[in-house]
Amino acid sequence: LVCYVIGNTDTGKSSMINEICGQQIFKVSHDDNHGTLAIQRVHVPRVNATFVDTVGFGHVDDTTLLKEIKKDLKDESSYPDVILLVVTRVTLRDQAALKRITNILNDILQ
Predict the structure, then answer these.
(1) Long-range pairs for 17-22 at CB < 8 Å and ≥24 separation?
(2) pLDDT-derived band at 110, boundaries 50, 70, 90
């Protein structure tokens, strides 16, 4: 199982993965420094899944982030089985980001 976790900066993506796995897999930032600076992919045998922790939207421009995601999805074995969108509250920005992500993934996965 490959699970992509996406969302805006500082929404708790890394924390959510850690909670699902029951252990600290990814570093969590508790200050103004953003925790995830590059896409990270880790297989967790305990839950038999690979989690992909992405840079938050808003940390870098969306076009750059979507290019990085596209690069990470270079072959079918890296395609996500699940995409989790982490939000603290759904904003217009979240809706716009989700639409862009959906369009990019449709292009990649077809």
Answers:
(1) 17/51, 17/53, 20/47, 20/51, 21/46, 21/47, 21/51, 22/46, 22/47
(2) low
